[in-house]
Design brief:
- The complex is a heterodimer of chains A (420) and B (316).
- Chain A is 50% helix and 19% strand.
- With 420 residues, chain A is an alpha+beta fold.
- In chain A, the strands form 3 sheets. In chain A, strands 1, 2, 3, 4, 7, 8, 9, 12, 13, 14, 15 and 16 form a 12-stranded mixed sheet that branches.
- In chain A, a hairpin with a 5-residue loop joins strand 8 and strand 9.
- Chain A starts with a helix and ends with a helix.
- Chain B is mainly alpha-helical and 316 residues long.
- The two termini of chain B are 49 Å apart.
- Classes of the chains: A alpha+beta (420), B mainly alpha (316).
- Chains A and B meet through helix 3, helix 4 and helix 17 of A and loops of B.
Chain lengths: 420, 316
């Protein structure tokens, strides 16, 4: 009898507690916001963790994440966001942002939470491309830059040091290239291919190292049909002429490097994850080679988070809070550990530990002198440079003539985009 | 027939009762017509919504500018003007016809030769036929990637490794403006062969045996039998295969896209067909109006080519 009473009391007490909790929750009003990004396993894992932390700190907000394969992502967002069916917070490639702002599909971030002065002081300077009329429209969690990957075994076998200048790179690549009896390359010293990351290397690194500036007027005018542009192209084409590389070797540059048949390979920080899992490959990474005067340059790119115009009222407020968290130093540390992409805040990236990290270090140091190309149509602009090199290699066109054609073709793309 | 749903109960009761005497008062032919259209309504509706509406929409879009994000704006004939003055379009146009003019006759002749001989083979007939049909069932993407590997340079490509072992210099298959298109066309022809062989064999079997027996009694040569009996009687089959394979080669996409993913349609647009150009304009550059104009041009080409073939090969 006594036990029964005690049980009843216990049940009553639990129910009361449950009721009070429910009451408190409904008083705070539950809000659900939707977040979209493209599918890349490490990115999804990192975001899952960020969402879990954010929901623990904000119990009245639920964040639902949806992801699509990369190939469909741009089309899906482009279809869903204008129809209002899409997310409240969306991840976009920085190059798409102008289109989204022009179409009124994303909202500016409130200046009281995201003050332009603080952002300019704390983030790497490249994020300034996200600012318009004194307001930021989007912010990245992480950024990417380029570095030179090298195969330790092949370097040891050839007895060469890790190069720090372009000249040393060419010499080291020559020492590590191997050929069969018929003269066919069976192992390249250096991977090349404008279809991979080389078009970024050419634009933002080689041209600048040859004393030029690839674009003027805020990336509206092509400026590489110059002596510097010609010198950059001659250097690039010279790699194959000197026999230290072969474009299209083993189909794609990263495949050649991963399979251990390339000594040097330029790629982005997003490649770290894929290379870490590669059995039997002993690799290291160093900053992109400097020129003879010690001038370095780099290319960086990033994905940004933005609040869409469909977020209103409580969803908007929740989205602002969520944006604040995923661009916080804590989120950036988690992103670095999980995805391998570099923190967008210089204070987080440039810590002693990160900047000296053998793997992340070269990329993080590269961010300091990196440039971000503002593309009108990245794939079309890349194609221009791919064609430029192929005209010389497959049709024996004079490099200067091919360079002029490329500059004109790219200018036409930019003019068309900017409505000139 | 439409009734106001807010009408009161007695009214709707008469509404449900009313059609019954009206329907029974119709003649059998009229009832049949109503039933026929009742059943046809679903496919007709399906075709209108799924086929005709998007087609009409694409035609309208070809006169507009649209990047999927903003409003559609009128551009008049701008898209067509840009298209016809674009050297890449004319290159792509030539490529598309190269696929057609090389692909259709080669695949037709090969399929006929194989079918003609397979028809006379009794030993393991089913197995051999199945072997020819397997490529047709294989995913075009997987097949394109395997062939892409075959074509690679030393040290990974199958063909070039074979050449290197016998001391012949390697050939640039895909990385060449002259070799790339035929290199991509070869697996595309091979992949479609199985289907054409099956159709040809069905056509061959449909020719009455008595014709051949009569020819045999008259002592006619094998060539004469082929030219005077087999090919003329195979005409409907040939028309079918020619039209279908022409449309297939004019719409070639998956082989090209997958064998040149690094540089789609390259090198220097040497392999780019019209469908790939449409895909890139629409989903890389997000220039939907321009892509729609290209689609309309492709539609007109397909229509004209099919009409010409039907006219030329029609039974007199």
């Amino acid at each position: 009898m006594l036990r029964k009473t005690r049980n009843t009391l216990a049940v009553l007490a639990t129910s009361a507690a449950a009721l009070t909790a429910a009451g408190a929750a409904s008083a705070q009003e539950q809000v659900t916001i939707e977040y979209w990004q493209y599918f890349f396993e490490a990115r999804v894992t990192a975001m899952d963790q960020l969402i879990e932390n954010f929901e623990a700190a904000n119990p009245n907000i639920n964040v639902e994440m949806t992801h699509f394969p990369y190939a469909d992502y741009r089309t899906r967002t482009a279809v869903a966001v204008p129809s209002g069916e899409g997310p409240d917070v969306v991840q976009l490639f920085y190059g798409w942002l102008n289109d989204y702002i022009d179409a009124g599909l994303i909202q500016p971030l409130p200046t009281d939470t995201f003050s332009p002065e603080t952002i300019e002081a704390e983030f790497f300077p490249m994020v300034q491309a996200m600012e318009r009329d004194g307001q930021y429209f989007a912010l990245p969690t992480a950024v990417r830059s380029l570095a030179l990957f090298y195969n330790e075994r092949l370097l040891e076998a050839a007895g060469v040091e890790v190069p720090t200048t372009l000249e040393e790179l060419v010499a080291a690549a020559a020492a590590t290239t191997e050929r069969d009896g018929a003269g066919n390359i069976t192992q390249v010293g250096f991977t090349s291919g404008m279809t991979a990351q080389d078009h970024h290397w050419f634009r933002e690194v080689l041209i600048r190292q040859m004393g030029g500036e690839p674009y003027t007027d805020g990336y509206r005018n092509v400026n590489y049909d110059t002596e510097a542009g010609r010198a950059a192209l001659d250097f690039y084409l010279g790699l194959e002429e000197q026999g230290v590389t072969q474009s299209g070797f083993m189909d794609e540059p990263q495949a050649a490097f991963r399979s251990g048949r390339a000594a040097f390979h330029i790629d982005g920080s997003f490649r770290i994850g894929a290379l870490e899992g590669e059995r039997g490959l002993r690799w290291g990474v160093t900053e992109l080679p400097a020129n003879e005067e010690g001038v370095r340059s780099n290319y960086s790119s990033y994905w940004v988070n933005a609040i869409t115009s469909s977020a209103e009222g409580p969803e908007y407020d929740a989205s602002v809070l969520f944006m604040e968290y995923i661009t916080s130093p804590e989120a950036m540390e988690i992103w670095l550990e999980t995805v391998g992409e570099l923190p967008a805040r210089s204070a987080v990236g440039m810590t002693e530990e990160n900047a000296n990290d053998p793997v992340f270090g070269p990329f993080i140091r590269g961010l300091e002198y990196a440039h971000t190309t503002i593309f009108a149509d990245e794939s079309a602009q890349r194609q221009v440079l791919v064609d430029m090199v192929e005209r010389v290699q497959l049709q024996d066109m004079d490099p200067g003539e091919s360079l002029t054609i490329a500059a004109e073709a790219e200018q036409a793309i930019l003019d068309d985009f900017h409505g000139e | 027939m439409a009734r106001n749903p807010s009408s009161d109960a007695p009214n709707s009761a008469t509404a449900t009762a009313a059609p019954a005497p009206a329907f029974s008062g119709l003649t059998i032919t009229q009832k049949r017509t109503i039933w026929a259209w009742g059943f046809l309504a679903i496919p007709v509706l399906f075709y209108v919504v799924i086929r005709f509406y998007p087609t009409a929409n694409a035609m309208v879009l070809s006169f507009q500018e649209w990047n999927l994000l903003g409003e559609r704006t009128w551009a008049g004939l701008d898209n067509y003007q840009v298209l016809f003055s674009d050297p890449v379009f004319w290159q792509v146009f030539r490529n598309t016809f190269m696929y057609l003019l090389l692909g259709t006759p080669i695949s037709l002749v090969l399929a006929f030769i194989v079918a003609y001989h397979l028809d006379q083979v009794r030993f393991m007939h089913g197995t051999i036929r199945a072997l020819y049909f397997v490529p047709f069932m294989t995913s075009a993407v997987a097949m394109a990637w395997v062939w892409r590997w075959f074509y690679q340079d030393v040290p990974i490509g199958l063909f070039n490794n074979a050449l290197a072992t016998v001391g012949i210099p390697q050939i640039d298959f895909l990385d060449s403006t002259t070799n790339a298109l035929p290199s991509i066309l070869a697996p595309a022809i091979w992949a479609g062969l199985g289907f054409q062989i099956i159709i040809f064999m069905a056509g061959l079997r449909a020719i009455p045996r008595s014709f051949y027996e009569a020819a045999k009694i008259d002592g006619v040569s094998t060539w004469t039998v082929l030219w005077e009996i087999t090919l003329p009687l195979l005409r409907p089959t040939i028309v079918f295969v020619v039209v279908l394979s022409s449309i297939g080669f004019l719409r070639i996409f998956d082989h090209v896209f997958n064998m040149t993913t690094q540089n789609p349609g390259g090198p220097l647009n040497a392999t780019k067909p019209l469908v790939l150009m449409i895909y890139q304009t629409a989903f890389d550059s997000f220039d939907m109006g321009y892509a729609a104009a290209q689609t309309v041009v492709l539609f007109v080409i397909l229509l004209v080519v099919s009409l010409i073939q039907l006219r030329l090969l029609k039974d007199r």
